[in-house]
């Protein structure tokens, strides 16, 4: 990267969001952009999460870009290796390689109020950009809880998203901490290898069967020769999930039948009543993400598996102590304890127009206009921003909606001409957030009786979208200039006489 390089757009991250943004920029005729990636390859969370059994819980034909269909998905639910390979192909097919800057972790981004641009410091050099599109994603920075004594543990410790493939688990006593989406894939994958598996379960998940199978050669041939068949398959998968949304967002009581199905799924594999009681959640299904597995419950019934229905609270040498006082001697600890979702570290590195960081601006909770723009941070957008997550469908649908918004944002700036910027009006951000939070009150995520990673430290749901993907696409189809202040460069630089860097009002 050339020192002090200047580009029209800097995209942060090369997962689905970052690569999608890059493709969309090229389609808009913009080639003056870079994709800054801290790692040495594309893939985002599908590069970082390479643990045994890693796979997606959204059907393959829905968990892919509409503009880059893949007729060759090998299974209805694809594994990590196939999804990462898909993203590599996207980078190749859409000629994104020249724009990629690997080993370029963003250390600091600061807004220059005079030049109306972002100054960016990375681990590989400095550059500036008119627009920043942050696509770091909420599942990028692993979270390991602070547990007394953990630093003195003599064995191996790692997070599921930083799997140590050089460490041989065979014959080891292994502790799995956490029972989320990663844990229910890891436990069945490594249980046959280890001598003893101890699962520390703070809260049991609801687990439904995973209807997974190989996609036949005939199906793939059909999708290759007749692309509309793959489109129809994707449409059907999408439509089913759209119809399910109201149960999550408006009528949580309707989920009682689904709970009964989940309990039957458990009963088929768990015959021990005491174990079944420990594994039965005490909250409404859907409050936490519903997990899919055919192997999780059968694995927990195996003789070399212990389920501790309590969180890990202390480490004494090689002894792990749970909140209920039970102990386990282990050789290795695997943390499946999630990520910094509501306190993303990247927010500490973004300094806005008033000299405050995004983290400081969001100290009372993340909020962004239409999930994209934060007040006081001009020409900065985020992909998979606050309240854009989903509890039952594909995030790729939400990403593509945000790409529509990004594209119109860039178009509108181009129409203004010269050096200009948009800054989300605080009132517009607050109005959008109030509307979202009002809708959130009746959802299962707020009323279901659980504490989930959807909630921030204040107990506010800043993660999930309380509606359908269709509603979100409609809300992000285009930029409403009434929700933004327009900033212009100083007269000295632009030659203008009246625009001195102050706001050009756009009446709401």
UniProtKB/TrEMBL annotation:
Catalyzes a Baeyer-Villiger oxidation reaction, i.e. the insertion of an oxygen atom into a carbon-carbon bond adjacent to a carbonyl, which converts ketones to esters or lactones using NADPH and/or NADH as an electron donor. Thus, can convert bicyclo[3.2.0]hept-2-en-6-one into the oxidative lactone products 2-oxabicyclo[3.3.0]oct-6-en-3-one and 3-oxabicyclo[3.3.0]oct-6-en-2-one. Is also able to catalyze the sulfoxidation of methyl phenyl sulfide (thioanisole). The keyword NADP applies. The keyword Membrane does not apply. Keywords: FAD, Flavoprotein, Monooxygenase, NADP, Oxidoreductase. Belongs to the FAD-binding monooxygenase family. InterPro entries: FAD-bind_Monooxygenase_sf, FAD/NAD-bd_sf, Flavin_mOase-like. One of its GO terms (molecular function) is N,N-dimethylaniline monooxygenase activity. It comes from Streptomyces brasiliensis. This is Baeyer-Villiger monooxygenase. PANTHER family: FAD_NAD(P)-BINDING DOMAIN-CONTAINING PROTEIN-RELATED, L-ORNITHINE N(5)-MONOOXYGENASE-RELATED. SUPFAM superfamilies: FAD/NAD(P)-binding domain (SSF51905). Its cofactor is FAD.
């Amino acid at each position: 990267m050339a020192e002090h390089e200047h580009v029209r757009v800097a995209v942060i991250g090369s997962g689905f969001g970052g690569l999608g943004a890059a493709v969309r920029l090229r389609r808009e005729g913009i080639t003056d952009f870079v994709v800054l990636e801290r790692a040495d390859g594309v893939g985002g969370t599908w590069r970082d999460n390479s643990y045994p059994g890693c796979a997606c819980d959204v059907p393959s034909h829905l968990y892919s870009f509409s503009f880059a269909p893949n007729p060759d998905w090998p299974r209805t639910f694809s594994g990590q290796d196939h999804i990462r390979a898909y993203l590599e192909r996207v980078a190749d097919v859409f000629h994104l390689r020249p724009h990629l800057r690997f080993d370029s972790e963003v250390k600091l981004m600061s807004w220059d109020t005079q030049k109306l641009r972002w100054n960016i410091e990375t681990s590989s050099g400095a550059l500036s950009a008119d627009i920043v599109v942050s696509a770091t994603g909420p599942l990028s920075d692993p979270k390991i809880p602070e547990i007394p004594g953990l630093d003195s543990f003599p064995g191996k410790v790692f997070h599921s998203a930083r799997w140590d493939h050089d460490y041989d688990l065979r014959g080891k006593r292994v502790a799995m901490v956490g029972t989320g989406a990663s844990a229910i894939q890891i436990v069945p994958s490594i249980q046959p290898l280890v001598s003893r598996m101890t699962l520390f379960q703070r809260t049991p998940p609801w687990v439904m069967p995973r209807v997974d199978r190989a996609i036949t050669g005939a199906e793939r041939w059909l999708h290759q020769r007749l692309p509309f068949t793959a489109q129809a398959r994707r449409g059907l998968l999408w439509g089913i999930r759209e119809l399910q949304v109201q149960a999550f967002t408006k009528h949580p009581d309707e989920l009682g039948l689904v709970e009964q199905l989940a309990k039957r799924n458990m009963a088929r594999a768990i015959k021990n009543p005491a174990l079944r009681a420990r594994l039965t959640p005490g909250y409404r299904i859907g409050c936490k993400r519903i997990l899919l597995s055919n192997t999780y419950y059968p694995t927990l019934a195996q003789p070399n598996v212990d389920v501790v229905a309590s969180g890990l609270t202390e480490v004494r040498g090689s002894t792990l102590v749970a909140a209920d006082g039970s102990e386990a001697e282990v050789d290795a600890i695997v943390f499946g304890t999630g990520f910094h979702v509501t306190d993303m570290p990247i927010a500490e590195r973004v300094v806005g127009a008033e000299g405050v960081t995004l983290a400081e601006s969001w100290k009372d909770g993340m909020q962004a206009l239409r999930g994209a723009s934060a007040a006081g941070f001009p020409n900065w957008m985020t992909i998979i921003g606050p309240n854009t997550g989903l509890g039952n469908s594909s995030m790729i649908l939400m990403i593509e909606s945000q790409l529509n918004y990004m594209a119109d944002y860039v178009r509108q700036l181009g129409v203004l001409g010269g050096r200009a910027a948009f800054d989300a009006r605080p009132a517009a951000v607050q109005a959008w957030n109030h509307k979202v939070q009002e809708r959130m009150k009746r959802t299962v995520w707020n009323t279901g009786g659980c504490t989930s990673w959807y909630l921030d430290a204040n107990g506010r749901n800043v993660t999930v979208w309380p509606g359908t993907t269709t509603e979100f696409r409609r809300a992000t189809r285009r930029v409403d200039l009434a929700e933004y202040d327009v900033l212009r460069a100083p007269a000295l630089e632009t030659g203008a006489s009246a625009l001195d860097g102050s706001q050009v009002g756009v009446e709401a």
